Amino acid sequence: MYTQITYAVDAAVATITLNRPDRMNALTKVLEGELYAAMQSAHQDDQVRAVILTGAGRAFCAGMDMDELEVLPPGDIGAREWMRPYDMNRRSDYQARYTYFPGVAKPIISAINGAAAGLGLIFALYSDFRIASTNAAFVTAFAKRGLIAEHGISWILPRVVGHAHAMDLMLSSRKVTAAEALSMNLVHRVVEPDALLDEARKLAAMLSEDVSPRSVRVMKRQLWEAPYQTLGEATAMANHEMYHSILSDDFKEGVAHFQEKRKAKFTGA
Length: 269
Fold this sequence. Notes:
- The protein has ten helices and ten strands.
- It is α/β, with parallel strands linked by helices.
- The chain has two domains: 5-208, 2-enoyl-CoA Hydratase, Chain A, domain 1 (Alpha-Beta Complex), CATH 3.90.226; 212-259, Lyase 2-enoyl-coa Hydratase, Chain  A, domain 2.
- A six-stranded mixed beta sheet has the order 1-2-3-5-7-10, with helices on both faces.
- The longest helix is centred in the first third of the chain and has 16 residues, at 29-44.
């Protein structure tokens, strides 16, 4: 089914691996389409409770493949083939060509094994968790290509690292090491290369087994909706969701497993 990624589901965790190691997993039209399809599969599969995104070989994603970039027409960025019909159950802001990760109902963990440049950095930023190998490096790259702050990075990057760091990373296009990325909160944690996938799988397992998938699904939406809301709107949304959560099977199980001192058996309902 896939030629430039791999997709596997094991124990409620979907692992998507960008699989062009000879090209540092640089993005092509094919890879882009396959990544979107895999994310939608994970979104729609009730058995999947968390997603890990990583890269094969020594890179996470080196951005757009330069060979392909040279032949893309200027109108490609808004081409009809990339303009998908909106899902009315997901915010339209998170259904654009490269900003759809927040609209996926499952938590997305980027396991950043190497270079994350340009679009590779954007994929990481729109993930819910970022775990980096000590070999990872980050660069916006756009200014060095004569481009601009693409695909909403001017919105998401300051929210992750703050305005000053975002200005530095965008305008200088300098390379940031994993250690510096951790210091500016660009990543959540840094581990040795051999431990990266194990660390990501531990986090995915915790999200899949220890907490309610219904709660995770709703709270992810609340957190990604919050930048557009007033305090009153966020509170009203919380009150609405609280009412429905109290009626849910997962709430009943959450109380029962605590009282019975046993491991939870959440269903997501």
